Amino acid sequence: MTAASGVPRVAPGGIREIGAVNWLVCRVAGRAAGTGPPNLFRTLARRRGLFRGWLWFAGRLMPGGSLPRRETELVILRVAHLRGCRYEFDHHVRLGRRAGVRERDVERLKEGPHAAGWTPREQAILAAVDGLHADRDLADGAWTRLRAHLSEGECVELAVLAGHYEMLATVITALRVQPDRVRGR
Questions:
Q1: Is the peptide bond before 12 cis (omega within 30 degrees of 0)?
Q2: Domain check: are 51 and 98 in the same one?
Q3: Which of 6, 39, 61 finishes a domain?
Q4: Are 55 and 94 found together in one domain?
Q5: pLDDT (tens digit per residue) in 35-70
Q6: Residues of the domain holding 146
Q7: What is the distance between the alpha carbons of residues 117 and 101, in angstroms, rounded to a whole number?
Q8: Based on the domain organization, do 77 and 55 belong to the same domain?
Q9: Same domain, 54 and 100
Q10: What is the domain-level CATH number for residue 122?
């Protein structure tokens, strides 16, 4: 897994560049994550309207989605691992702890859906994430296994969630978003 290298291509904005409302949102998000205002948020907020639209959309997936939070974090962490996106991975390790993702789960995520210890539902979800990442599609067998555990609506949400975090990994990497400062360190 790699960290974003070099200097950010777009520096995270301060209050003047992103506006007072967006700055406040960034500060609140940082407190929730145990960091300063997240560099990703401060970077995206340079396009104020886009940031607010994205924030609303992203919030409908996490934390406001219908999938259990633990599963949501497993999906995000698996995508971040597959994409080698250290920023996304580290951020969601911190958030995942509160959702019941333990250190042993994080290590198993690196092995994949066939690692010992996953429930059949978690295996199906993680296998779907792997398929979406590798093939940008789901094989019929993966879909059948997924549908044995998730409703149609949950399958839609899972596909959008995985695709959204693939997109974020691309943005983070392309813009060279740097790691957040963890509070207390």
A1: no
A2: no
A3: 61
A4: no
A5: 999 999 999 999 999 999 999 999 999 999 999 999
A6: 69-174
A7: 13
A8: no
A9: no
A10: 1.20.1290.10
Amino acid at 146: L
Same domain, 144 and 112: yes
Instruction: Quote the tokens at residue 84.
Output: 């080698």
Q: 103 in a domain, yes or no?
A: yes
Note the pLDDT tens digit of each residue in 110-152.
999 999 999 999 999 999 999 999 999 999 999 999 999 999 9
C-beta of residue 138 within 8 angstroms of C-beta of residue 132: yes
Q: DSSP for the chain?
A: -BPPPSS-SSPPP-HHHH-HHHHHHHHHHHHHHTBSS-HHHHHHTTSHHHHHHHHHHHHHHTTTSSS-HHHHHHHHHHHHHHHTBHHHHHHHHHHHHHTT--HHHHHHHHH-TTSTT--HHHHHHHHHHHHHHHHSS--HHHHHHHHTTS-HHHHHHHHHHHHHHHHHHHHHHHHTPPPPPBTT-
Q: In the listed set 61, 77, 110, which residue is the last one of a domain according to the structure? A: 61
Average pLDDT, the chain: 95
Residue 87: strand pairing partners: none
For residue 88 the two structure tokens come to: 């996304």
